[in-house]
Recover the amino acids of this structure.
């Protein structure tokens, strides 16, 4: 279970570039629940994910996972409990190392790495089975450098790697945004499969209204560093992409009104 | 011929340096300039201990530890104090110059009667014996030293190769390849860089220890330009094996180091002024670095 309480983050405080990315976000994700996060550019959805992953220190608030307070843990220590797939398909794998070596690295996530053999024959055949199970035809190319694969293939493998050691929390950061439509579909299918199979607690950011409407059992919509809407249960299941777009239009209109109203007040009183 | 055997031996000794540079430069993608200082440090520690009567094996191990400490210092400056990698290396290298003078007590320490790690090898043959191989006059003593050095380098190369197949070795390779990825796999990138630099400079110091015991003196200037030499060996090695696969690269880099020494010996024989040696080495590395890009540009131009 993930418990996020009152987290705030301002980048470049006190400068003209000041960005108030998170302004008091509370979020509790039950065990095994899949939460989809949507929001416009700059709404803080990716920042929320990075805050949980530990990419930067928080200004305020706490983050607990599986009952452990990890607010002050460095990123690599949190990684013992968290699986991650990045937006950039090249971020999640080491390009000059082979497929098998990359998987072997993920098979040790969060564990002590000593002078034991990194890629023994037993681990190797086990990894081979896992790759075969994905049905990408990569099981016979385990010794190829992973950098020779396409973005979609690399993203699929990153996904497999993130669940190789069952994580307490899976973070998916727009992990299909940089892929062509066919690869994106494939990665989404694989995502659904892995989520179903392992019942992973998941926080997934997406820009695709289609994915947002069809994936997960809960959806939150972020605006300006806050959670604006939180759809659960039957309400989430009824949501269609058009409903979400309509909500976005509401937000946009409200913000325009805010600005024009402010302008009007300024001309009247200043 | 004696010149040739000597070049082979020094080339083999400096292959240890090249393996160290391979770890920092290629595996970690870290341009580590500590090397110039840590090679001398290895030599200085060895010479100082040998003069005090220490066992050669103890002196050599102490040199490795000293080199590891130097590398770890560079790593900590870079990862904890957030200093640029090049600058961190330069700072440690500069500081080591004074440290080395203190260790040796003077700028040059000759090893005259002291037993070295090579003494038992040399004693296997008498000093003035000489045999002829293919019509060349050769001292068996020098051949034995060469054989021993090659064996030692092969053993070290094998250990390095096996290390990079362990769990921690794989993590180190991934650190140089994609730090974001390995961090997400739960590895402390800063610690990995520090450990890698310690190992690299441990190897460099081992090269210094061997060099001092082979040539019979330690000199505070002996490390100058060594990092460029290491780059040269790595680049030649990569060209020789034409692969980025680590196992092959290790072999290639050892061959590269020996080949480079031979080239130097031949150039000197043909009348290259020894004063121009560093200039020639730097020019060589420059050309080797620029050539692949240049070839690409030219190929495009011919095609277009």
């Amino acid at each position: 279970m993930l418990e996020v309480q009152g987290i705030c983050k301002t980048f470049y405080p006190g400068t003209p570039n000041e960005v108030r990315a998170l302004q008091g976000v509370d979020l509790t994700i039950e065990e095994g629940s899949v939460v989809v996060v949507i929001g416009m550019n700059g709404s803080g959805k990716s920042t929320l994910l990075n805050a949980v992953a530990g990419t930067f220190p928080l200004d305020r608030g706490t983050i607990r996972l599986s009952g452990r307070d990890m607010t002050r843990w460095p990123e690599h220590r949190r990684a013992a409990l968290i699986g991650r797939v990045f937006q950039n398909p090249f971020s999640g794998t080491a390009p000059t190392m082979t497929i098998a070596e990359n998987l072997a690295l993920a098979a040790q996530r969060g564990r002590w790495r000593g002078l034991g053999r990194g890629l023994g024959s037993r681990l190797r055949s086990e990894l081979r089975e896992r790759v075969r199970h994905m049905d990408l035809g990569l099981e016979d190319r385990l010794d190829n450098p992973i950098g020779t694969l396409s973005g979609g293939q690399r993203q699929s493998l990153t996904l497999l790697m993130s669940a190789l050691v069952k994580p307490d929390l899976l973070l998916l950061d727009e992990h299909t945004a940089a892929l062509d439509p066919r690869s994106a579909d494939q990665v989404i299918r694989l995502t659904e499969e892995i989520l179903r199979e392992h019942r992973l607690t998941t926080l997934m950011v997406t820009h695709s209204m289609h994915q947002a409407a069809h994936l997960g059992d809960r959806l939150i919509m972020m605006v300006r560093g806050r959670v604006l809407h939180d759809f659960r249960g039957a309400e989430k299941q009824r949501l269609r992409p058009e409903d979400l777009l309509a909500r976005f239009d509401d937000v946009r209109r409200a913000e325009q009104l805010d600005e024009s109203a402010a302008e009007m007040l300024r001309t009247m009183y200043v | 011929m004696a010149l040739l055997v000597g070049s082979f031996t020094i080339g083999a000794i400096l292959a240890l340096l090249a393996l160290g540079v391979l770890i920092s430069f290629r595996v970690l993608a870290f341009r580590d300039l500590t090397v110039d200082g840590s090679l001398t440090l290895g030599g200085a520690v060895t010479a100082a201990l040998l003069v005090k009567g220490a066992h050669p094996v103890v002196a050599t191990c102490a040199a490795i530890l000293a080199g590891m400490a130097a590398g770890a210092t560079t790593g900590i400056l870079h990862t904890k104090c957030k200093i640029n990698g090049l600058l961190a290396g330069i700072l440690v290298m500069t500081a080591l110059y004074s440290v080395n003078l203190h260790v040796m007590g003077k700028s040059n320490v000759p090893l005259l009667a002291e037993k070295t790690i090579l003494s038992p090898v040399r004693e296997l043959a008498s000093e003035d014996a000489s045999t002829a191989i293919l019509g060349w006059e050769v001292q068996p003593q020098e051949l034995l030293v060469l054989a021993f050095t090659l064996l030692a380098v092969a053993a070290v190369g094998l250990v390095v190769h096996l290390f990079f197949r362990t769990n921690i070795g794989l993590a180190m390779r991934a650190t140089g390849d994609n730090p974001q990825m390995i961090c997400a796999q739960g590895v402390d990138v800063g610690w990995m860089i520090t450990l890698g630099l310690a190992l690299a400079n441990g190897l460099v110091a081992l090269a210094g220890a061997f060099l001092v015991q082979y040539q019979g003196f330690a000199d505070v200037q002996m490390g100058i330009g060594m990092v460029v030499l290491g780059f040269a060996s790595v680049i030649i090695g990569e060209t020789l094996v034409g692969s980025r696969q680590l196992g092959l690269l290790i072999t290639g880099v050892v061959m590269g180091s020996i080949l480079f020494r031979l080239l130097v010996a031949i150039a000197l024989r043909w009348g290259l002024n020894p004063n121009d040696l560093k200039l020639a080495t730097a020019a060589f590395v420059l050309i080797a670095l620029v050539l692949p890009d240049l070839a690409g540009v030219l190929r495009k131009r011919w095609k277009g």
About this structure: Residues 189-215 of chain B form the longest helix (27 residues).
